[in-house]
Design brief:
With about 450 residues, the protein is an alpha+beta fold. It has three domains: about 130 residues, 2-Layer Sandwich (Ribosomal Protein S5, domain 2), CATH 3.30.230; about 150 residues, 2-Layer Sandwich (lpxc deacetylase, domain 1), CATH 3.30.1700.10; about 140 residues, Hotdog Thioesterase (Thiol Ester Dehydrase, Chain A, Roll). It contains eight helices and 24 strands. Strands 10, 11, 12, 13, 14 and 18 form a six-stranded mixed β-sheet that branches. Helix 1 packs across helix 2. It is elongated and about 75 Å long.
Length: about 450
């Protein structure tokens, strides 16, 4: 997939939902890999705020909207615009704004979607930078939770549960793509309970809110308004998640299961996603040695070869493959690895059996990419001559060299050596047997 921007600038005007200030905002095209940025044109500094996880405002006082900040300058209530950009697949734009809050429009993403579609969407040269969740993530606060797990697309399920006759156990779930976003999410409006409206205003918020841009939910339904969907409130919560996830600055794939969550928990999820991305993509891997193919298998490709999944996938990357003969695998050892919870809480060290398993998984990638064993899986048969020579701690990088000594139709003999900083940590001889991949589904 290629990155996208808009073809022409587009200007919107309105009132900020919380500040009540008049605002004029112009969205302009941006180049490949420039991302989403806001520029406060009302300030002498013309401060630019780039959308990244590190620029998301985590202040607990910012509860009913999402904000970003750079050099002490903020832009508030960006979630509905961000949802429109994310939902339409737009990666690169510059947003010039003449005050600190995005216009509220009708309280949804609908007007932003219409404006961006009118401006025209253009495909660019650079590939999209999409991160696929690799390990389950959990964030929670009292009775609110969000769980995100690996999935091949963005899917969001939300359970709404208010002490309100119309909002008890409201549930909505969708795979988020262009069609579902524009038809089923973009027009879902923000809401509050009639019983909490006065308190919200007492805290200096919702100065620009009215019955047209905010669903004020009474026991009988929205005050002076009608619902666009029977479950519009749950849909709006999903819309907020779509917008808040784009605080990452890149699209993400995974399945989200949220219960009674809001912007604060969404932002906590964003921080954990970024931490996971850093774990999997920013480690300085060694270059391939001269004479090797230089073929690198990243985590997504490894998962297509091996049947292992979290929490039992122990190789992050395989490099220097000579198919069917040898290769080097990499395991980045972090304190987030689940086995450290019990091995040992007071002095975390990597278990020897896990080191062996990591080497075996590296060997599995090497033997199964030779072309001779298509449609097979390699199962551990035996292990011998095991020697543990160095303790491995969180923060170490385990380089696992495997060499195929003998590869037959039904079995393979592999020698493995794993090192940390050039020092041998473990060595072993391993035997594998091949079986049909459908064995795992029987």
């Amino acid at each position: 997939m290629k990155q996208k921007t808009i073809k022409n600038p587009v200007t919107l005007s309105g009132i900020g939902l919380h500040t009540g200030k008049s605002v004029r905002m112009t969205i302009k095209p941006a180049g490949d890999n420039e991302g989403i940025s806001f520029i406060r044109v009302d300030l002498p500094s013309k401060q630019k705020i780039q959308i990244t996880a590190s620029n998301a405002v985590m202040d607990e006082k910012v509860t009913r909207c999402t904000a970003v900040e750079a050099q002490g300058v903020r832009v508030y209530t960006i979630e509905h615009l961000m949802a429109a950009l994310n939902g339409l697949g737009i990666d690169n734009v510059t947003v010039e704004i003449d005050t600190e809050e995005i216009p509220g429009m009708d309280g949804s993403s609908l007007e932003f979607v219409k404006a961006l579609e009118k401006a025209g969407i253009a495909e660019q040269q650079a590939d999209k930078d999409v991160f696929v969740i690799q390990e389950p993530i959990v964030v929670a606060n009292k009775t609110s939770t969000i769980v995100m797990v690996p999935h091949d697309q963005l899917n969001i399920s939300y359970t709404l549960d208010y002490d309100h006759p119309l909002l008890r156990s409201q549930f909505f779930s969708r795979s988020v793509d262009l069609a579902s976003f524009t038809k089923e999410l973009a027009s879902a409006r923000t809401f509050c309970l009639e019983s909490e409206a006065a308190e919200i205003k007492a805290h200096g918020l919702a100065k620009g809110a009215n019955y047209q841009n905010t669903l004020v939910m009474s026991p009988k339904g929205p005050v002076e308004n009608t619902l666009r969907f029977p479950d519009e409130c749950a849909r709006h919560k999903v819309l907020d998640i779509v917008g808040d996830l784009f605080l990452l600055g890149y699209p993400v794939k995974g399945a989200v299961y949220a219960t009674k969550s809001g912007h604060a928990l969404n932002r906590a999820l964003v921080k954990k996603i970024e931490a996971q991305r850093q774990k999997y993509t920013t480690v300085p891997y060694p270059a391939a040695a001269p004479g090797t193919t230089g073929r690198v298998f990243n985590i997504n490709e490894i998962m297509k070869i091996l049947p292992h999944r979290y929490p039992f996938l122990f190789v992050d990357r395989v490099i220097e493959i000579e198919p069917g003969k040898k290769g080097i695998g990499i395991k980045n050892v972090t304190i987030n690895d689940g086995f450290f919870q019990g091995h040992f809480p007071q002095k975390p060290v990597m278990p020897g059996v896990v080191m062996i398993e990591a080497m075996a998984q590296t060997a599995g990638v090497v033997v199964l990419t030779s072309g001779a064993h298509n449609g097979k899986v390699a199962l551990f048969m035996s292990i011998s001559d095991v020697k543990f020579r160095k303790v491995v701690y969180p923060g170490d990088q385990l380089l696992m060299e495997v060499e195929i000594v003998r590869d037959r139709e039904r079995t393979a003999h592999v020698k493995g050596v794993a090192r940390v900083d050039g020092e041998v940590a473990i060595e072993a001889d391993m035997m594998f047997s091949y079986t049909e991949a459908h064995y795992l589904n029987s």
